[in-house]
Amino acid sequence: MLNRVSCYLAGLKSLALKVDRGLLLLLALPLFLLLANPSWILTPTGSIDPWVYFGYFRNLGHHLWTFAGTYYGTRLPQIIPGYLCNRLFPPLAAEYVLHLTFYYIAVISLYLILKQCFNSRVALLTSILMGCYPFFLGAQRCQSKRRR
Length: 148
Description:
Layout: H1 2-18, H2 21-36, H3 49-58, H4 60-66, H5 76-88, H6 91-117, H7 120-132, H8 134-139
Helix pairs in contact: 2-6, 2-7, 3-4, 3-5, 5-6, 6-7
């Protein structure tokens, strides 16, 4: 029994040494940003494009017919996940899940690529800078009408 417990503890210690702390920091980064400024992820008024995509997410069939022949309907890599998120979650939760997923895919992909090409410090610093860059954050905004 004691031997099993010591093996289990040794395995946990080995796992703790393998945990990538930079990756954990990047996973927490948008949560810190939301605590500092809860509205960074919500779309400001004044632009029609985010609202058209929100319409696609909520009523895909209607918008495919209404906007047939426009460039809006060609952005299927954004539209299809948004539509699926809106089928699985309530509207505001779906927008957070969708845009935080795209945020994480971009930031973590950059981190893992740079970690392989350079080192973990370069990868972490660059990924944090991109993850906090205002124009990158603007691209990750939700199209929800609800404001805090």
